[in-house]
Amino acid sequence: MKYCFGIDIGGTTVKIGLVSENGEIVTRWEVPTRKGSDPTGLLEDVKVSLENCMAERKLEKTDILGIGMAAPGPVTADGVLHGCVNIGWGDVELKKHAEKVIGISPVCIGNDARVAALGEAYFGAGKGAKSILMVTLGTGVGGGVVPDGHILMGESGVAGEIGHMTIDPYETAVCGCGKKGCLEQYASATGMVRATERFLKEKNTASVLREKDAVSAKDLWDAAKAGDALANEITDFVCDRLGSALANAIYLVDTERIVIGGGVCAAGQFLLNKIEASYNSKVFSHSRNKTFALAELGNDAGIMGAAALILQDAE
Ligand SMILES: [Zn+2]
């Protein structure tokens, strides 16, 4: 049996998994993210951690097919990470650097949202589909396209970055990226809270949401599911924008399946139905045959997708 390591670099922790060649996580653990101006310190921590794991399980370097890494920033096909604001890195040749510091090759790098899409395509909600478009609704909105079993990378590493598609050119509030009117400003958990606050202020409709001091995205979806009229108006508004973005994206990539992930997808089938209805109202009739699915890998999507970066070529 051969193995690979799947590594998901986050702002506070680095999640690591030892994954078997048939796609099962044998063991998983975390190390704290060592921040700094370059990745050397973090990679040294990872190296020690991987060596401990291999020693415990009596694995040699020849048992390891490679290391896949997911990083929170744009990554190009040459393994260069173009800025990682959360951790403090500028442009880094992460692939080259990691292979040198850790001493295991190959190291394959991908953007975290794109890698999560690859994980779902191979091991989760995308299994059995020829191609998937995945959108992650969390603190922000991420995305990734897997057209043919590999991540669509693009030239500058932004292919699939649906969260910053301009969805309202007349928006006056500024997105985290510096532009105005991005999908993320409405369809992220933060965006949903912002929409809720605005609707509560502008409308007089009675709502259970008025009883809360601070409304969360979960409160909003719980209220909508329970039949609260205003909460349904707000979730319809949010899904309308999401449906527009998905329709626009499908006209470019035309995947077989659309996968919705991230913390907000805890709202389940109810959320999926609203997104699907909105999407279907905005596309040509023959593009209404897409299957919609909720992501299945949860917190393991990063590790599994990173492992898939290695296993996709080992098969
Ligand atoms: Zn933006």
Domain unit count: 2
Distance between the termini: 13 Å
The quaternary structure here is: single chain
Shape: globular
Rounded to an integer in angstroms, the radius of gyration calculated over CA atoms is 20 Å
Largest sheet: 5 strands, mixed
Top CATH class of the largest domain: Alpha Beta
Which CATH architecture of the largest domain is right?
Answer: 2-Layer Sandwich
Helix content: 25-40%
Q: Which regions are unreliable across 5 or more consecutive residues at pLDDT < 50?
A: none
CATH topology of the largest domain: Nucleotidyltransferase, domain 5
Q: How many strand elements?
A: 11
Main sheet strand line-up? 3-2-1-4-7
Mean pLDDT: 95
| Alpha-beta content class | alpha/beta
Ligand types: zinc ion
Can you walk through the features of this model?
With 315 residues, this protein is of the alpha/beta class. It folds into 2 domains: 3-118 and 299-314, Nucleotidyltransferase, domain 5 (2-Layer Sandwich); 128-296, 2-Layer Sandwich (Nucleotidyltransferase, domain 5), CATH 3.30.420. Helices cover 37% and strands 21% of the residues. The chain contains 9 helices and 11 strands. The strands form 3 sheets. It has a 5-stranded mixed sheet, with helices on both faces. A 4-stranded mixed sheet has the order 9-8-10-11, with helices on both faces. A two-stranded antiparallel sheet has the order 5-6. Strand 5 (81-84) and strand 6 form a beta hairpin. Helix 1 (40-56) crosses helix 2 (94-102). The chain starts with a strand and ends with a helix. Bound molecules: zinc ion (ZN). Zinc ion (ZN) is lined by residues 164, 175, 177, 179, 182, 184. Zinc ion binds at residues 164, 175, 177, 179, 182, 184.
